[in-house]
Amino acid sequence: MNTKFYRDVATGLFIFSLAAPSFAGITFGNPKADTGALTVSATLRAKYNYKDYGKDIDPDNSIKFDAAILNFGYESPKVFGSAQWRCYQWSDLCDFSTLVSAYAGYRLNETDNITLGLQPVPFGPSRFWDSSFYAGMNYTLGLQDTLNLGVNYHAELPSATKFDLAYFARDGGNYTGTADNDTARYSANAVKTDDPTMTSLKEKNMFVARVIQDLDFINNDDLKMAVGGSYWYSSIDNKRNNQDGSRKAWSLFNTINYQNLGITLTGGQLKIDNKDPISNYSTFGSFDTEYNIANKGLFYSVDVNYAFKNVRDNLNITPYLVLSGFNKDQKGYKDSQRNIIGAAWNYKNIAVYTEYVMSKNDVFIGGNADSFAAGDDNKWNKLANVIFTYTF
Questions:
Q1: Comparing C-alpha atoms, which of 253, 347, 336, 345 is closest to residue 302?
Q2: Rounded to whole angstroms, what are the CA distances from 335 to 82, 252, 370?
Q3: Separation between Cα atoms, residue 258 and residue 1, nearest integer Å
Q4: Which of 4, 63, 229, 320 is most solvent-facing, going by the fewest CB within 10 Å?
Q5: What pLDDT, on the 0 to 100 scale, is given for residue 249?
Q6: Of 138, 147, 142, 240, the residue nearest 192 (C-alpha)
Q7: Which residues pair with 167 in a beta bridge?
Q8: Closest C-alpha among 332, 291, 335, 333 to residue 198
Q9: How many domains does the chain have?
Q10: Which keywords annotate this record (predicted)?
Q11: How far is CA 239 from the centre of its chain?
Q12: pLDDT at 56
């Protein structure tokens, strides 16, 4: 199994704001004027991987070009929008490319807005559940950093309660890749396949709700806390027998920020009924790779980070620890884990992520197509991951 998957944060650290997209780059116009402002930016990335697993695995001990990312952002007093396209290189330039996002929004007031288009699904504490670049295991389950096509209503109440109500008609789509299947996509989605050992699925009619409550009863300006929960229900179209199943998922989460320390705890349950009488797994795909995941299980993510700001001449350093996993209900299936220790180094428009990933029963780190389902050899595999980014 290849290791083409890793976290794709184009700019910045750990923060995503749907209502106010902001990029480095060139801005045309004035965001405070009725005509608004268009901002165009780009990011170039290189990577270094060293794979410490498998006798037949190339350790990939070299620095290579990774991706080019193009961002468009529009901002005005009432209307806003964003779009992002990415071009990757596995062997040749742009042999895998994909649309990541493309949405427009309208502000109802200072806090409430409606967005329409290809946008993040409001499930879990935020779009990104952890600080790492590679991302925790919940991305591969199609729960974290998932962007689908739909509409979202975001509102904030005087009680410091934020909520999102969203409907997504379909997934984010399949684009240009090297594999002859349905996996040329950024988000991890259920996919159609001709492989008889896999399921062939299409997710549609997704209803998602999220509530986040700020806890402001503690009179301390240095301490910020919030708790929340989210729920996801969708239809699963089985392409082999034309029956409709479902995906149900819920999550509970807690975020704590004290001065420069950040902690995010997330946990929940995934249940898929794919109407396939012979399998206890469902086939998902992303980044040119298709794989099976267990239909039922509990997932979790723990993120701890600390920001050392302006260490020297505007250099910011943020070390982090990420623990994530998927504990499967099916008897005989081996649980999957992915743990990451690393640091992000930010200086002006340059960012470097240095990470050490330890994983078992993981498709993308020494595993196979069944690692997230039945599992593999249950051994710990390691990966050194270094990403260099320049945004302009």
A1: 253
A2: 38, 20, 12
A3: 40
A4: 63
A5: 98
A6: 240
A7: 151, 207
A8: 291
A9: 1
A10: Signal
A11: 26
A12: 65
Alpha carbon 338 to its chain centroid, in Å, reads 15
Model confidence over 154-201: pLDDT tens digits? Answer: 999 999 999 999 999 999 999 999 988 999 999 999 999 999 999 999
Side-chain-side CA neighbours of 371 within 13 Å: the count stands at 28
In a domain, 344, yes or no: yes
CA distance linking residue 174 with residue 51, whole number of Å: 28
Query: Nearest 5°: phi and psi at 112?
Result: -100, 145
Per-residue pLDDT of 212-262, as tens digits, reads 999 988 778 899 999 999 999 999 999 999 999 999 999 999 999 999 999
Q: Which helix (H) or strand (E) covers residue 296, if one does?
A: strand 296-306
pTM comes to: 0.91
Buried b (16+ CB within 10 A) or exposed e, 363-375: bbbbbbbbbbbbb
Give the Å distances, CA to CA, from 105 to 81, 108, 117, 150.
6, 10, 9, 12
- Per-residue confidence (pLDDT) for residue 13, from 0 to 100: 33
**Residue 11, domain member (yes or no):** no
pLDDT, one tens digit per residue, over 255-294 is 999 999 999 999 999 999 999 988 899 999 999 999 999 9
Residue 161: burial class (beta carbons within 10 Å; 0-12, 13-18, 19+): middle
Residue 132 belongs to domain spanning: 26-391
What phi, psi does 331 have (nearest 5°)?
-60, 130
Reading the block at residue 302, the tokens are 């723990």
- Alpha-carbon 346 to chain mean position: 21
CA distances from 173 to 168, 191, 282 (A): 12, 10, 18
CATH number at residue 232: 2.40.160.10
In a domain, 272, yes or no: yes
CB atoms within 10 A of CB 196: 7
Residue 210: Cβ-neighbour burial (10 angstroms; 0-12, 13-18, 19+): buried
Question: What is the pLDDT averaged over residues 137-149?
Answer: 96
